[in-house]
Amino acid sequence: MTTDSPLFDVLVIGGGVNGTGIAMDAAGRGLTVKLCEMNDLASATSSNSSKLVHGGLRYLEHYEFGLVKKALTERELLLQNAPHIMWPLRFRLPHRPHLRPAWMIRAGLFLYDHLARHRHLPGSCAIRFGADSPLQPQITKGFEYSDGWVDDARLVVLCALAAFDRGAEIRTRTRCIRARRKEGLWHLTLQNTVTGERQQCRSRALVNAAGPWASSLFADTMTMPSPRQLRLVKGSHILVPQLHDGPEAYILQNDDQRIVFVLPYQDRFSLIGTTDVDYEGDPAEVAIDDDEVDYLCHLVNGYFKRQISPADVVWRYSGVRPLMNGEGGEAQKASRDYTLELDAPEHEAPLLSVFGGKLTTYRLLADAATGTLSRFFPEAGPAWTHNAVLPGGNFSTQARLAEALHQHYPWLPDALLHRFVRSYGTLCHRFLQGCEQLDDLGEAFGNHLYRKEVDYLMEHEWATTADDILWRRTKLGLELQDDERKRLQHYLQAHQAAPAD
């Protein structure tokens, strides 16, 4: 490697929520940043979550008061800083006396309401279920409390956009295959996973934010022993036709002390999950098994009038949570907190590794990680993300943004306008500007997905495949037919093959 190879202050490995969050934070402090992700942004754990911004009510049972307090504080900030992809969600917890006594639930909800300040969400209360309840008739009492919903994959993309807007270089489909320390720098070899092309670069600091691969990256890329081993836990979800008509979510207790969420999804589905199963193997190959599907169906059928079976499942997915490896025990009790490991021998380039973490606390993790690295960069600016609005979030409420968009583009169908508000916020002006009628959006690929939006996603949000667009950027994967998906993929391939102007 020569001194002509590009030099960065920080190179981040991993394009999940923690990696993009760190890239955004570091770039905003004036550091030169490059991020490489071997697949698409949010292609693993960060897009396979329960899609919640929450404090973690059940973590109180494991005495993780510090984690819950941090998460509740971050929940408020995220609802404020990304009002397009995050919004409040009311949860109903049916009471089953043989599982947890009412006094215990009341105590937990009291702590949940008071461990951190909350301005955006109402507090908890007791409720009664009447004859019109979607629950089984014997379930008559319960509790209600607030948390938040998040479009997890778009959160990652918006963090990458914020990093890019501040000068960071974002490289998807790029794997770091070699990293060595030499003369006070990291010397790295990156490989495009599509073309096989390799490139060399150097960095003053290296961040390992590889999620489930954070431990194995040491042996595979750096030929170093990992300072920590992760406990990989599989969490699986199923999607079924809507179980109830209301906007509320449900949190269901089970005899094994686990809880499962039933969440409204895309207006006509219920998202059910998650499981907690220890996992060994390649995180890229994780998949839900029949036992997990049966487990989720059985639990739901014990609560809801509307019964479901595996035949009702229209979509299923699994993700691998990289949790801190403690003293063993049940997977559901493993901590969701994070640890930052700094390896900085004297006169050598520093390495910062991220182990563990959860979606809700990604900003706090990124702030701590960049703060740790800043000691090696005296020129770095101060912490800044506390009130940083994510791209597209510069509006007051979704209702007011929808009204403004309707005035600018009165020809937009209501369903499309609603999706643009909750996916892009004000970013949708980038591809709507200049359009005066629906036909101006170009070719229709199905379910109101048009060429203008697709072109924007390719040119500005690093989308290269139909899956990138349908499952991570727009959540339209369930809506397009096979022939429509193929037509979209052919368009993407043709666009990428076309010579640049």
Furnish the topology, listing elements before pairings:
Elements: E1 7-13, H1 17-28, E2 33-36, E3 52-53, H2 65-81, E4 86-94, H3 102-114, E5 125-128, E6 141-150, H4 152-165, E7 169-171, E8 174-182, E9 185-192, E10 198-208, H5 216-222, E11 230-241, E12 249-253, E13 259-265, E14 269-273, E15 277-278, H6 290-301, E16 315-324, E17 338-343, E18 351-356, H7 362-374, H8 398-408, H9 414-423, H10 429-432, E19 444-446, E20 449-450, H11 451-460, H12 466-473, H13 482-497
Parallel strand pairs: 1-2, 1-10, 2-7, 4-12, 10-18
Antiparallel strand pairs: 3-6, 4-6, 5-6, 8-9, 9-10, 11-14, 11-15, 11-16, 12-13, 13-14, 17-18, 19-20
Domain FAD dependent oxidoreductase: 9-326
GO molecular function: glycerol-3-phosphate dehydrogenase (quinone) activity
Cofactor: FAD
Structure characterization notes:
It comes from Oceanisphaera arctica. InterPro entries: DAO_C (IPR031656), DAO_C_sf (IPR038299), FAD-dep_OxRdtase (IPR006076), FAD/NAD-bd_sf (IPR036188), G3P_DH_FAD-dep (IPR000447). It catalyses: a quinone + sn-glycerol 3-phosphate = dihydroxyacetone phosphate + a quinol. Pfam families: DAO, DAO_C. The strands form three sheets. Strands 3, 4, 5, 6, 11, 12, 13, 14, 15 and 16 form a ten-stranded mixed sheet that branches. Strands 1, 2, 7, 8, 9, 10, 17 and 18 form an eight-stranded mixed sheet that branches. Strands 19-20 form a two-stranded antiparallel sheet. It has three domains: 7-45 and 154-229 and 336-387, FAD/NAD(P)-binding domain (3-Layer(bba) Sandwich), CATH 3.50.50; 88-148 and 231-323, D-Amino Acid Oxidase, subunit A, domain 2 (D-Amino Acid Oxidase, Chain A, domain 2, 2-Layer Sandwich); 398-497, Helicase, Ruva Protein, domain 3 (Orthogonal Bundle), CATH 1.10.8.870. It is built from 13 helices and 20 strands. The longest helix is centred in the first third of the chain and has 17 residues, at 65-81. It has helices at 17-28, 65-81, 102-114, 152-165, 216-222, 290-301, 362-374, 398-408, 414-423, 429-432, 451-460, 466-473, 482-497, and strands at residues 7-13, 33-36, 52-53, 86-94, 125-128, 141-150, 169-171, 174-182, 185-192, 198-208, 230-241, 249-253, 259-265, 269-273, 277-278, 315-324, 338-343, 351-356, 444-446, 449-450. The protein is globular, with a radius of gyration of 23 Å. With 501 residues, the protein is of the alpha+beta class.
